[in-house]
Amino acid sequence: MIWKKRPTLEELQQACHQTLVERLGIEFTEVGEDYIEARMPVDERTMQPMGLLHGGASAAMAETLGGAGAYLCVEEGMVCVGLEINANHVRPAGPGWVFGRTIALRIFLMTWVQIIVVSILACPRNS
């Protein structure tokens, strides 16, 4: 396991109270041995005027997953922040839900490189 902390889903969600995460409706759904999953509604909070998921909302979801992963990888009392995010919007998402998963690609002493996928499909449970 790569996590140095192991909060419950409820504790992870409560840490986001009165933040952008809560306002966008992002919900953590699973913390695995080396990944975190969440979902976000595609509704009036996260859509662009054309009725599709706003690219900034999907980037905010990716940043949320990445930040949660970084937080769980550091010792209690340590603070971590994001360095960079790059988003490619390959497919549009309409009303409903999008699902995201972050997993560590490489863990260095002071930097964690992760891959984050936001998809209209639920994350497979066997990967």
UniProtKB/TrEMBL annotation:
Family matches, as Pfam families: 4HBT (PF03061)
Keyword Transmembrane helix: yes
GO cellular component term of the entry, any: cytosol
Gene Ontology MF annotations: 1,4-dihydroxy-2-naphthoyl-CoA thioesterase activity
Top-level lineage group: Bacteria
Transmembrane segments: 103-123
Record-linked Gene3D superfamilies: Hotdog Thioesterase (3.10.129.10)
Keywords attached to this entry: Hydrolase, Membrane, Transmembrane, Transmembrane helix
InterPro entries: HotDog_dom_sf (IPR029069), PAAI_dom (IPR003736), Thioestr_dom (IPR006683)
SUPFAM superfamilies named in the record: Thioesterase/thiol ester dehydrase-isomerase (SSF54637)
Thioesterase domain sequence ranges: 50-106
Recorded family membership: Belongs to the thioesterase PaaI family.
Name of the protein: Hotdog fold thioesterase
